[in-house]
Design brief:
two-stranded antiparallel ribbon, 516 residues, 19 helices, mainly alpha, elongated, Ubiquitin-like (UB roll)
Length: 516
């Protein structure tokens, strides 16, 4: 989130990555104070630059990407007087009617003449008649569209939306007036809240309520009953229809609402393919704010985990987005792996969680292909950098999960015996030879030449008994990634003495020692 913050005569452009959603106001204020070398954080507060509205927990939705804020000492921020209306975004205060005649209070009977009451502080009579009305208060009108009617006689609100209007100023219920005319003064408008899923969804088409409705939806979808009602009202589709016009934090709130619903598998499996495609496109967009990207990744992980063939469906949908691209595994994984280098820890975490989700849903025969593509994209280097950095506990947990998937593949490959009848196995063996000796032709499948590589006999198949095809996998890895060292080691063993250990056989035994 990029913010423009002014303090006195200085203005700074600040990039702030919220540690939580919604953002922590105290953390935001502290970080901004640090930018201006201020240490007494509690003595300062933030206001909007447009109308000077004090930023509080109840109106954090005012802090959006690209907005302009002002940092001020709290002592310089005027406090509203008791009974006066405080201008807030999307609200208006209504002045009491000046046309209603008000009778004067009856004088108290007394033998002593009573002086006329002061104009500024009239003395109320003990009779129930109304007190003199004060001069009309100024009308405060917000520059944003008002979400409520301004008639002092009546008002209407959407069902389940509270705080959208001020109480009727002519009402006499409530506390006793503290001064003459207090019965006709308006109170500050209550913050708008939504008490039901229906009220929030019905407000999505109201420009003045949309952002706040999306913000509150995540709190309304905390239980299974509310989530089922959300699906019955076609909530996911209603939110998706709004997405073409959403940006910044408003888009983030929309995605977080869907993510809240997806805590239940019955909601996740109902995600429309149009939304899944949209999420796949969004994770490849480097211009989105972090809260959007990390939520997209999390929803895709939930989808991959909840659906029986979730991993396959993700790649199929991505292939439809890029029909001219070959190798959909590599391309989609390239987008995800690029996010492992993000400066936002939550994006790193969710990107790795999505990778782990696809691995968990891959069939055993698919794991070889998937890990091969990941290795081509140099995932090990990226994960090593993550591990060496100051990572969170949750990120370390995801690194451990990835290692478990890799170990499961190792055990699987270890238990696959090498077979001369398998074309795949024979192709791997030929790959080992051509990688090591690209300019030397192998005279025959069974040959004395294999001894040069460090096998015990003329047929290498007999040497893989202990580790299966995984022993061959490791020899190929060394030949491809440490080619010069491998060739030098082999050349030094051409005139092998009795006490020297054959290179290929030594590599297979070392692999077995590490796995066991």
């Amino acid at each position: 989130m990029k913010l423009s913050v002014q303090f006195n005569d200085k203005t700074k452009q600040i990039t702030y990555e919220p540690a939580s959603d919604p953002l922590d106001l105290r953390d935001l204020t502290q970080r901004i104070c640090i930018q201006f070398s201020i240490t007494s954080f509690s003595d300062y507060a933030l206001t909007t630059s447009t109308n000077g509205t004090l930023i509080e927990r109840s109106n954090l939705f005012l802090v959006t990407d690209g907005c302009h804020l002002i940092l001020k000492p709290r002592s310089t921020i005027p406090q509203p007087a008791t009974g006066q209306s405080v201008p807030t975004l999307g609200s208006s205060s209504v002045a009491p009617s000046a046309t209603t005649p008000t009778p004067k209070p009856a004088p108290m009977p007394s033998a002593v003449p009573t002086p006329a009451p002061s104009v500024t502080t009239p003395k109320p009579a003990p009779t129930p008649s109304p007190a003199p009305a004060p001069a009309p208060a100024p009308v405060h009108t917000s520059t944003s569209p008002s979400p409520m009617p301004t008639s002092p006689q009546s008002h209407t609100t959407s069902p389940g939306v509270t705080g959208a209007t001020s109480p009727n100023p002519m009402s006499t219920s409530g506390s006793t007036p503290t001064s003459p005319g207090a019965q006709q003064q308006t109170t500050s408008p209550m913050p708008i809240t939504f008490t039901s899923v229906e009220s929030a969804l019905s407000s999505l088409n109201d420009l003045s309520l949309k952002k706040k409705a999306l913000f509150h939806l995540k709190d309304l979808l905390k239980d299974e009953t509310s989530t089922r009602r959300f699906l019955e009202k076609d909530g996911i589709r209603l939110i998706e229809e709004q997405m073409n016009d959403l940006t910044g934090n408003t888009m983030a709130y929309a995605l977080i609402a869907i993510h809240s619903a997806c805590q239940y598998d019955f909601a996740t499996v109902s995600l429309p393919m149009t939304l899944v495609k949209r999420l796949l496109v969004m994770i490849a967009d480097p211009n989105l704010i972090p809260s959007i990207t990390k939520t997209c990744l999390s929803i895709l992980t939930q989808y991959c985990t909840a659906k029986p063939n979730g991993q396959r469906e993700l790649f199929d949908q991505y292939l439809k987005l890029t029909p001219a691209t070959s190798g959909q595994y590599q391309t989609l994984y390239a987008n995800i792996l690029a996010l492992l280098s993000s400066s936002t820890v939550d994006i790193q975490l969710n990107a790795l969680a999505l990778i782990n989700g696809t691995l968990a849903k891959s069939q055993s025969d698919e794991l070889i292909t998937v890990f091969s593509k990941l290795d081509e994209l140099d995932i090990n280097t990226k994960l090593r950098r993550l591990y060496e950095s100051n990572v969170s506990h949750e990120l370390k947990k995801q690194l451990y999960v990835y290692q478990k998937h890799k170990l499961s593949l190792i055990k699987q490959r270890k238990n696959v015996s090498y077979s001369k009848e398998s074309q795949d196995h024979e192709a791997l063996l030929m790959k080992l030879w051509t990688t090591t000796f690209p300019s030397v032709k192998l005279e025959s499948r069974v040959s004395e030449q294999w001894k040069i590589l460090g096998f015990q006999g003329t047929d290498p198949a007999t040497d893989f008994r202990g580790m299966g095809v995984f022993g061959l996998d490791n020899l190929i890895y060394i030949a491809e990634n440490h080619t010069e060292q491998f060739r030098k080691l082999i050349s030094s063993q051409v005139e092998r003495k009795e006490r020297d250990y054959p290179v290929a056989v030594a590599g297979i035994n070392l692999t077995q020692m590490h796995v066991l």
